Amino acid sequence: MSPGGHAKRFLPWLALVALLAVLALQQRDTEPPPEDFAGLGEQAEGYAQARPGAALRFPRDHGAHPDYRIEWWYLTANLEDPDGTPLGIQWTLFRQALSPPDDDDGRSDSPWASRQLWMAHAALSTPDAHFVAERFARGMTLPDSRGQAGVKLEPFAAWLDHWRMESRSTAPAGDTLDRLQVTAQGSDEGYEFGYRLDLNAEGPLVLHGEGGFSRKSADGQGSYYYSQPFYRVEGQVEIDGETREVSGRAWLDREWSSQLLGSGQRGWDWFSLHLEGGAKLMAFRLRGGGEEGGDFVSGSWIDADGRRTSLAGDDLRLKPMTYSPVAGRQVPTQWRLRLPSRDLDVTVSARRADRWMNTAFPYWEGDVVVEGSRSGVGYLEMTGY
Amino acid sequence: MLELRRIRKSYPTPQGLLPVLQGVDLRLAAGESLALMGESGSGKSTLLHLAAGLDTPDDGEVRLDDQPLSALDEPARARLRRERLGLVFQQYHLVPSLTAADNLRLQARLAGREDAAWSRELLERLGLAGMAGRYPEQLSGGQQQRLAIGRALAARPALLLADEPTGNLDENSADEVLALLLALVRDRGCALLMVTHSPRVAAPLDRCLRLRHGRIAEASL
Amino acid sequence: MNAASPRTAFLTLFSHYRRHPGQLAMLIVGLWVASALWSGVQAINASARDSYARAEALFSTGLDRIERRDGRPLTLDDYLSLRLAGAPVSPMVEGEIELAGGRRVEVLGVDPLTLPEISGFRTAGGTGSLRDFLQPPYRTRLAPDTLASLTAEDDALPSLADGRALPPLELAPELPPGLAVMDIAVALELLERDGLSHLLVAPDARVELPDSLVRSAAATPMAPGQLTDSFHLNLTAMGLLALVVGLLIVHTALSLTLEQRLGLMRTLRALGVSGRALVGLLLSELLLLGLLGAALGILSGAWLARWLLPDVAASLQALYGERVGIELALPWHYWLGGLAVTLGGLLTAGLGTLWRAARLDVLGLGHAQAWRAQFLRQLRSMTLAGGLLWLVALGLLVWLDRQPPAEGLTPGFVMIAAGLLGSALWLPPLLAMLLVGAGHLLRRHPLAQWALADLQLQLPRLSVAMMALLLALSANLGVGSMVGGFRLTFLEWLDQRLVADLYLRLPPAQYQAAVDWLESRDEIDTLLPRASAEATLLAKEGSQYQPRPASVYGVTPHPTLTESWPLLASQENAASAWRAFARGAAMINEQLALATGLAPGQRLRLSSPSGPLELPIAAVYPDYGNPRGEVMLTTTDLSARFQTSPDSIAIVLERELPPGAIETLRRDLIQALGIGGGSLIDQREIRRRSTDIFERTFAITRALNTLTLGVAGLALLSSLLAQSSQRRGQLAPLWALGVARGPLAGAGVVQLGSAALVTGLLAVPVGLALSWCLVAVINVAAFGWRLPLYVFPAQIAATLALALGVALLAAVLPAWRLWRTSPRILLTEFEAL
């Protein structure tokens, strides 16, 4: 028996115990999902509130707003490989504050003791598969915007681990988001996938709602919301060791708030569509919480030159047509979308019903095809099913 | 030889003290045989036990060889029983783990005066010569009682005390055992005090006394 | 029979116990004790198994670790640069904190967000529990048994020794005992650290590491199941022994109550109760008693386990590094199992009784004559069965001799059980033979002759209690010799192995500095660098074994060490073996030699970073206390071949040092090298620790052994007491014939004393055989090392004295009662029926 032999034998054992902590944490996973998706409708006392009338400023507002509870940098792209096979990618960075800004009781000044939780999702869709990966990180109170996850401004970069969205442009002219590079690699059930995309904006940033304040229910709460829908994309995707050149269009959404959903709202259906002729359409339906308990429908019509018109439920009609069984639920995978003021009457169909994001907060996110009075492509996100 | 004077003895019962003997006087000379008769519960066995020094009277005196038993401690009384007395019980009380021969010699050996010739003779006369190696449970009732008598006599006692020695035997065996007992007692010049309820058994003895209500009631049959 | 009559019959049968409460007490005590010891052991096993079932779940998902090469804590930047490069590593800090009241608890700080193998946190209900875990005031997750051991004293929530509070507690039953898991932020704060202990990474994850970091594979689990199984099998065997001894009491009591109720049963049969109904009645009586005994036993078993568990936990931790909660966790099958075993044992013990009741002869003819023949028949079948069992034991011994040692555990115990039972069955025939013989020798001593003959008469009933005594004595002697032998060997071995005065463990980067510093000191006589590595022993063509993990251990073959280091086998002699070793040969420990059949002169193949090594084996050395196979090389060879550097130094000091010199050196060393006091261990400390481990290991064995012996004594006492009224019938005539009560009582004590002495004498060879089996079969199978067999005359004498003591203790009470019996009571035996 060598001195310390017992202690030595102990060490590997101890190291493994960590997993148990996780097992224990996951114990609670078996509870049914809440009506209120991902806590987005939780009361947000102590946090800053999104209100109409505040002017957004860039590049400042491309960065994180830690005093607000939730925030995201949300990129989707409709791509094609040289054979014309349609592909879709998603790159999302979520930030969530776990406690209000002034709640620092018992928090040490250790870099590990942070209020912020970061989560990133990467997905890659092909006509017959859907690869998803997610990563988590705690925020770190480090100088110089270092840390495992975060967003910095000069030059712009948003990252979690090695998943990055960063500015390729150092030119002072134009917006720092105009030229981006986006990367992610992950694995899903043993399949490695990844992408590296160069994005070039061909139009301006678009502020939704009232100068960037987007109402989310009839009783007034909402979020700050702007988009860059005009990206032209070149790059490579890799699936299971095979690389393909791709090109297409991408759409970046930026949104932050402390209470996104009103009480009684169960989830949303969100469309971002690139239409034939260069116009874009953003439309969403928040289920519940509208006037007299109905749905709250809103959107933006964006001309090819970036001019924007607000849309509301009296003009914009969203109607589920076909439901498909996905991950044990019924999810509407085909929609009729009508906008009489623009002579728009289209069917929006998922390329594949199973685009389920089986992540910690599960939801549906996938590429769609637009057919009817105008054709196009886009992305559909549905939560709360 | 044996003298009991004004013996009183009572036993505690749930109903209070039960007087068993209420002033009994009795004398037995050397070589004399005496039958003590009486109903069940008349105190016959108690009297026998007192005579053997197995029990002590509440009042009165038991004298053996002119010596008061009350003056002796237990080891001395045990020694007296070993060396001077022979006891025969209705239930035989043989030692089941010893052979007939060893049972017969047991008391003589305990008394330290085993006489091999006498033991052999006893076995012969008791009709047990061919059964010396048998164990008690391999003998009939009559044979067992004869063996018990042999055990009592093997140590050449001065006084033989017998408690219903034929009580467990059928009439034929009883007569046979009794005849043997009396013959041996006479031959040895040994005194005999025998408790019995049967006049038929008491008849051949020199004297007969009857116990009634704790007293000697009559002095003859 | 009408409906009421079974009840009447039952009550009539049962009324026997009102007259003889002693027999009832004996039955219940027997059942109680048997079931208590058995369930106690089972409770300990169940509880310990539960503890490492929790730990073992982890072994199956072992994670690799990443550490710094220089042994220092990892920094945040180390972590971040790996994460930002995409490496799925997770930080961890581990340490111990002292709680108020001196209790210590192992703290594990984790980052639940990056731990591998998680698809994510479905933190339903918002970020609920995850948020609590990650945010002030944080949470301390621990198993219920850890919680209980922390708060047992005052029920207050634990706080740290310095007054800081632990984060609020949250129960996580899946966690192993003795461990508190919390968020890394608060763990770092409580442990007052900045750096990380190491990083974790899934074994299948590819990670490119900078040179400053080193990845170590998930430690090959040491199959704790297999190791601890042997420990539990040991316990179970002790439990079974206790159960058998307890059931022997029950058997004695049952035979007695049946025998005394034969007349009653005949009467019941004559009154019209059928034989079947009678058996049914007895069966329900048995069940009733069984339920009562089992209930008492199981409850006391739990209590017993609670009492022994801290020792068991300490043993397991010391032996195998397994943590066991010291709180009982009793699954439902514990209760059910205890009940089943007790009732099953009771029915087995009562089967003979029921059989006899079923064949009851209504008239009772021939019964009195039959007992002797019946007993002789019984003795014959005992002799025969005992012989068969011994054949089984010998057969197993021959078979075991041809098996690999590790597979011998269960067959080894079966062999021991067969040998013990065989010996126990031979005891009554042996006693009977001796009694007949002695009876012939002592025929001139009437009282002695009577006593011997009378003992024969008692034998059928006493023999079972004597068998119990034999089992308990043999076990006591056997285990005692084994433990004593182990202690001798082990302490001697420790002294031989611990040649150095101080042992210093240090990270490779600090090694040279330490050597330089040490060499400048006058107190130092010799420095013996040591190194270690992990490797796989590869199978060779024609070898009998599978590839297996082995530790590789490097020592410096300096004369100080080689002159005292014990060797078990070498090709020529120790000196030539050490010369070969210095030239590059390997030595292997006994565990490895036994497991693989490798021997000096053969060659072994070992994996190494520079490719497979093929080394000649110079010698085999004993390595007590180490559960793993080990290959020993010189430190130089090991460092070169496994591309590592020495990780510890054995420091031999000058012989003649002034008092306090070691302490001074120690202090200076700690200060100069900036090492923790824990890296420097002195020889006395190791010796103390090892002896501690040793003592703890056998504490339970000894406790159970003593209890078993107590039970055997109880068996003897109760069987004597139970038949004391019957004995009166046999003693009264002798008293009437002129043997005073004093000598009669004395004869009884001598009778039992001599029977016990014979039993004790038989227990000596049986115990020594048992001891041999333990050291040569069970130890080899369970631990992988073999001990020399020691015979301790003092222990043998103690066993005999113990036998006598137990017998006398058991005999004195009945003898005293006899001596005190009033003649009136004895006279009742003569009353005419």
From TrEMBL, chain A:
Q: Which UniProt keywords apply?
A: Hydrolase
Which InterPro entries does its entry note? AttH-like_dom_sf, AttH_dom
Recorded superkingdom: Bacteria
Q: What terms describe the molecular function in GO for this protein?
A: hydrolase activity
Q: Where is the AttH domain?
A: 70-258
Please give the PANTHER family that the UniProt record associates with this protein. Answer: BLL1000 PROTEIN (PTHR38591:SF1), HYDROLASE (PTHR38591)
| Name this polypeptide is given | Putative secreted hydrolase
Q: Which organism is it from?
A: Microbulbifer rhizosphaerae
TrEMBL record, chain B:
Q: Which SUPFAM superfamilies match?
A: P-loop containing nucleoside triphosphate hydrolases
What superkingdom heads the lineage? Bacteria
**SMART domains in the record, alphabetically?**
AAA
Q: Name one Pfam family in it.
A: ABC_tran
GO MF annotations, alphabetized: ATP binding; ATP hydrolysis activity; transmembrane transporter activity
**Where does the secretion signal sit in this chain?**
none
Keywords, comma-separated and alphabetical = ATP-binding, Nucleotide-binding, Transport
Give residue ranges for domain ABC transporter. 2-221
Q: What is this protein called?
A: Putative ABC transport system ATP-binding protein
From TrEMBL, chain C:
Domain (ABC3 transporter permease C-terminal): residue spans on this chain: 238-359, 705-823
- Annotated InterPro entries: ABC3_permease_C, MacB_PCD, Membrane_comp_ABC_pdt
Instruction: List membrane-spanning regions.
Output: 231-256, 277-305, 332-358, 379-400, 412-442, 462-486, 703-722, 734-756, 762-785, 797-819
The reply on keyword Transmembrane helix is yes
Q: Where is the MacB-like periplasmic core domain?
A: 464-654
Places the protein is found: Cell membrane
The topology of this chain with respect to the membrane is: Multi-pass membrane protein
What positions belong to coiled-coil segments? none
One Pfam match: FtsX
Q: Which UniProt keywords apply?
A: Cell membrane, Membrane, Transmembrane, Transmembrane helix
The GO cellular component terms are: plasma membrane
Q: Which domain of life is it from?
A: Bacteria
Q: Which PANTHER family does its entry note?
A: BLL1001 PROTEIN (PTHR30287:SF2), MEMBRANE COMPONENT OF PREDICTED ABC SUPERFAMILY METABOLITE UPTAKE TRANSPORTER (PTHR30287)
> What protein name does the entry list?
Putative ABC transport system permease protein
Can you name the source organism? Microbulbifer rhizosphaerae
